[in-house]
Specification:
This protein is an all-alpha fold. It is about 45% helix and about 0% strand.
Length: about 190
């Protein structure tokens, strides 16, 4: 059972137990997404997935060292998107966001093509139609401003971070990434 205080904005967030991270990974596994497949589709390292659930059978109430953005990402994959915003995306026209990028920006890790700096600037920055700024992203997801600003400029934004930005804009990253099954994967809690 996943505690509600792990499914909240970072200012109220309690780190999940290793057993809670394992619960999410086990649920994904039931749908055919083992750790290797998740790593391949999302860009997360398989070793990290293992580290975040270390000793969960013997010491289930140990706190996981999973970073908040990764936890947001995993919970979205099991039907709990936007925990950083109380379950709601920002109010933005998703069609307009889609038009700002090439179609390859909305693929899984294997088919994904990183947006350019010009594309990013259409949706992230001062006075954009989304209202998303580097500062607001860093506050929301505990990212480092200099690293994010540099990665946006150079087109090296980590895939997971890109997925979280899309999720924030209302995109269903579960459907975008996990395409090998029918229906939705829902968190049992």
């Amino acid at each position: 059972m996943i505690r509600e205080n792990t499914l909240v904005p970072v200012s109220q967030w309690a780190k999940p137990f290793v057993s809670e991270v394992a619960e999410i990974l086990n649920q994904l596994k039931e749908y055919g997404y083992d750790s290797a497949t998740i790593a391949n589709l999302t860009g997360l390292q398989e070793k990290k997935l293992s580290d975040w659930t270390s000793r969960y059978k013997r010491e289930p109430e140990n706190l996981s060292d999973i970073p908040y953005p990764c936890w947001c990402f995993l919970t979205a994959l099991v039907g709990r998107p936007n925990i950083q915003n109380n379950g709601q995306p920002i109010d933005v026209d998703a069609r307009k966001v889609m038009r700002a990028f090439k179609p390859t920006a909305f693929k899984n890790k294997n088919a994904f093509e990183m947006p350019s700096e010009k594309e990013f600037k259409r949706v992230i920055g001062d006075n954009t139609f989304t209202g998303i700024t580097v500062e607001s992203l860093c506050e929301t997801f505990q990212w480092k401003p200099v690293q994010i600003a540099t990665s946006l400029e150079k087109g090296t934004l980590p895939f997971l971070n890109w997925c979280l930005i899309l999720m924030l804009c209302g995109f269903n990253i579960q459907k975008m990434l996990l395409t090998q099954h029918d229906g939705e994967i829902m968190l049992n809690h």
